[in-house]
Amino acid sequence: MVTLYGSAISNYYNKIKLALMEKEIAFIEVLLAPNQDESILKRSPLGKIPFIKSNEGYLSESQAILEYLEDAFPVNPLYPTEAFERAKCREFIQHLELNVELIARRLYAEAFFGGHVSQEIKDEVLAKLTLGLTGLNRLIKLSPYAVGDKFTAADVAAWPHLQLVSSATQKIYGQSLVEKYIPGIDVYFKMIESRPYAQKVGEERMTALAARFKNN
Ligand SMILES: N[C@@H](CCC(=O)N[C@@H](CS)C(=O)NCC(=O)O)C(=O)O
Prior knowledge:
Layout lengths: L1 E5 L4 H12 L4 E5 L6 H4 L9 E4 L2 E4 L1 H11 L10 H22 L3 H6 L5 H21 L13 H21 L3 H5 L3 H9 L2 H19 L2
Helix pairs in contact: 1-3, 1-7, 1-10, 4-6, 4-7
């Protein structure tokens, strides 16, 4: 049995939750915000979520977790069988996380949590995101899935990350940069959201968001 630690608000948590569901791996969730408690730092070195506990121990970093799940539970694979195609999936995820999600993350304090982000940072993020999303548009296939005709690990990452980046940029710049630079992404979102497990992840995210802002 796998235990998934974190919060349904988190896009990285939802990446792993969707992977567990699509692979039909039995798991339980332990809801936890990122934190610096010594007991958590032993399991996730920077106190970030998600992390998991498997029979072998604790594991952090969503991409390491995703690849561990694929290796340890080969049923319902999320990676193609051919080495180059597997690498293309990883290329897509790495580009998405390094050059899009991590860049847009600097906007989240103001977009979602009532904080303030300076105009200087907004301008810098806009320039970097424009590059990152233009690059991602060169990789994404939308045929109909992110890297081809099968649902893969690339979709497990693309859906939660791009949804969040789309919403953050809509709030900060008055338009979704994801829709601007990746034509057809709206159709893609709808297609992924028609999948039962993505629907469940999305519903549980909305419930967690409602609870988070009710307590504020
Ligand atoms: N590279 C990490 C990123 C995880 C991450 O940034 N998680 C956020 C929540 S979405 C977090 O824990 N943030 C708290 C922090 O940065 O201290 C992964 O892939 O798991």
